[in-house]
């Protein structure tokens, strides 16, 4: 039997008062997580060559170094491994982890995360009511490429109060901050974990924290769970109901249909897709009874009381939170009113942002269609050493999952509907289909005209990815990348796709930096004036008189590739333009309200 593990800095202590870490055991059976007790001297990955069982749940082993090394960057359209582990793994691993060991809450590093990029920040996951710490199991591989992921595990029999959990996480945050003072620390809090994250952020305003709240339990006072607590405490429930109640709550916390759709492959045949879904759903349903082991009745009562304390304590500290906060709220959460609570928190926490998921339940991170790494990229909150997201140095290449996500959004569907065709000219003057005539080595500057609503830019971005595996860095209007108007599009939107696929706010400094890194840069000199042109302005250019970009491109020896777009203005007519909208009172008031806050590009 061989044991592999990914090391992590351990903040808790095992019963023997020695550093405690979890291992993934690979043998003829399914992978399991075991506990290892011993002193670890280094922080590189190791291979355990032999082990011997000395007592239940504890192993000793002889350890030697491996040649595992980090890496500096990932290729474009890399395989991010989203949902490489499934809900089947969740139930199997949780079954082992919920066995009582008498230990306190502890941190573990999922082996599926692997080794992240060099200089990657730390991400601490704070679990929800289940306490297993496996809530990120679908996201382990995708997050593990860009974060040092550590998850908090709270044993089933543990009764650590809320203040104790906050202290445990706070100690871990302070230790990480002491090791790398200039690097941000990410806290992903799920349900009650969101309360812990907010409390830690409120108590540590001088530490650079990025807090991601997933359906935070700060709204417990308006939750249906409180109505259940008197029944659980005061009535002598039959023994048969002890396992049924946690299962019922399990059905309420998540959407079984969306959970069963995780890991489903794309099939051209509807029958094959339905067969695979049916098998997944049938596998999932019998395992719901395992929730009674993960959260038995006594633990459930304790967790609801813990939630009451957590919500009250956290709400009293909200005015002290100055960290960067992003809320992921499910609109079909049947446990707590997450949608309304997100609106309340946005009004109370300065700079707080939100993304709504209209078709998901309380267990958002365990349902299909929600890739946390894609959300982090799209909201522009990933950073390594800076206090604010840097669109160039902090940019992460799009993955295959990002491309699939693009296909399901409006730009992707529109791209499929219109089926654009691109031609290029080779050096000998021959016109060919595709991008053969465009240089692959940068710096390259693509300069062209916008059609109505700028739909053409997605065709260019998609074609470069598909044909040349190149990310075209578009110089976009700053207003499309600012957070000022996010309240107008709180769901994951086209503007989030801009960030995922490399858009950069147009400015001389950003243009300079892109060319200096030999990038392929996409520039529309006409900008939004062309994409939002008036009636009768089809095919008209609105370029500035001074082509500043030519001098900048010449400085770096960039190849300038001019292009033209045709077809859209011939197929669509403008029915209502800016002048018409200013004559409509409701639209005029809205335009006048947002115009003073708009960012200008020139």
UniProtKB/TrEMBL annotation:
<dbReference type="GO" id="GO:0004144">
    <property type="term" value="F:diacylglycerol O-acyltransferase activity"/>
</dbReference>
<dbReference type="GO" id="GO:0019432">
    <property type="term" value="P:triglyceride biosynthetic process"/>
</dbReference>
<dbReference type="InterPro" id="IPR029058">
    <property type="entry name" value="AB_hydrolase_fold"/>
</dbReference>
<dbReference type="InterPro" id="IPR007130">
    <property type="entry name" value="DAGAT"/>
</dbReference>
<comment type="similarity">
    <text>Belongs to the diacylglycerol acyltransferase family.</text>
</comment>
<protein>
    <submittedName>
        <fullName>Uncharacterized protein</fullName>
    </submittedName>
</protein>
<keyword id="KW-0808">Transferase</keyword>
<dbReference type="Pfam" id="PF03982">
    <property type="entry name" value="DAGAT"/>
</dbReference>
<keyword id="KW-0012">Acyltransferase</keyword>
<dbReference type="GO" id="GO:0016020">
    <property type="term" value="C:membrane"/>
</dbReference>
């Amino acid at each position: 039997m061989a044991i592999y593990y990914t090391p992590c800095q351990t903040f808790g202590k095992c019963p023997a008062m020695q550093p405690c870490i979890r291992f993934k055991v690979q043998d003829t059976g399914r992978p399991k997580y075991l506990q290892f007790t011993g002193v670890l001297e280094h922080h590189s990955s190791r291979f355990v060559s032999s082990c011997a069982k000395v007592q239940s749940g504890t192993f000793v082993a002889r350890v030697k170094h491996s040649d595992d090394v980090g890496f500096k960057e990932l290729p474009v359209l890399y395989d991010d491994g989203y949902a490489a582990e499934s809900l089947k793994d969740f139930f199997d691993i949780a079954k082992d982890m919920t066995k009582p060991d008498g230990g306190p809450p502890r941190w573990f590093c999922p082996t599926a995360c692997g080794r992240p990029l060099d200089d990657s920040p730390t991400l601490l996951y704070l679990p929800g009511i289940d306490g297993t710490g496996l809530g990120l199991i679908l996201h382990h591989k995708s997050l593990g490429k860009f974060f040092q992921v550590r998850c908090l595990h709270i044993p089933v029999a543990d009764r650590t109060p809320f203040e104790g959990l906050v202290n445990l996480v706070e100690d871990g945050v302070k230790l990480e901050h002491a090791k790398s003072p200039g690097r941000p620390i990410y806290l992903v809090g799920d349900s009650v974990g969101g309360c812990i994250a907010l409390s830690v952020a409120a108590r540590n305003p001088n530490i650079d924290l990025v807090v991601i709240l997933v359906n935070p339990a700060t709204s417990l006072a308006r939750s249906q769970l409180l109505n259940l607590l008197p029944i659980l405490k005061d009535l002598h429930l039959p023994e048969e109901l002890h396992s049924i109640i946690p299962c019922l709550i399990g059905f309420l916390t998540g959407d079984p249909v969306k959970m069963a759709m995780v890991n489903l492959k794309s099939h051209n045949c509807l029958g094959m897709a339905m067969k695979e879904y049916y098998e997944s759903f049938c596998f999932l349903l019998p395992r719901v009874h395992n929730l009674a082991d993960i959260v038995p009745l006594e633990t459930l009562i304790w967790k609801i009381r813990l939630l009451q304390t957590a919500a009250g304590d956290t709400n009293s500290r909200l005015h002290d939170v100055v960290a960067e906060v992003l809320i992921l709220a499910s609109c079909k959460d049947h446990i707590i009113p997450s949608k309304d609570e997100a609106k309340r928190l946005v009004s109370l926490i300065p700079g707080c942002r939100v993304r709504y998921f209209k078709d998901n339940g309380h267990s958002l991170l365990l349902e299909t269609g929600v890739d946390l790494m894609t959300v982090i990229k799209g909201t522009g909150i990933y950073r390594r050493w800076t206090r604010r997201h840097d669109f160039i140095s902090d940019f992460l290449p799009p993955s295959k999952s990002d491309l699939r996500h693009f296909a399901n959004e409006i730009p992707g569907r529109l791209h499929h509907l219109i089926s654009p065709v691109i031609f290029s000219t080779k050096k000998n003057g021959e016109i060919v289909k595709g991008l053969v005539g465009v240089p692959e080595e940068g710096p390259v500057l693509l300069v062209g005209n916008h059609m109505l609503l700028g739909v053409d830019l997605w065709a260019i971005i998609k074609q470069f990815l598909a044909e040349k595996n190149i990310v075209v860095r578009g110089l976009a209007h700053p207003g499309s990348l600012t957070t000022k108007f996010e309240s107008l599009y709180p769901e994951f939107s086209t503007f989030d796709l801009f960030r995922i696929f490399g858009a950069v706010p147009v400015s001389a400094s950003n243009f300079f930096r892109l060319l200096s890194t030999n990038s392929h840069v996409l520039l529309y000199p006409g900008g939004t004036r062309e994409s939002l042109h008036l009636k009768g302005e089809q095919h008209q250019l609105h370029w500035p008189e001074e082509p500043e970009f030519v001098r900048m491109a010449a400085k770096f020896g960039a190849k300038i590739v001019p292009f033209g777009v045709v077809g859209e203005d011939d197929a669509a007519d403008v029915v209502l333009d800016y002048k018409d909208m200013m004559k409509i009172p409701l639209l005029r008031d809205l335009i006048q309200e947002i115009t003073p806050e708009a960012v200008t590009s020139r």
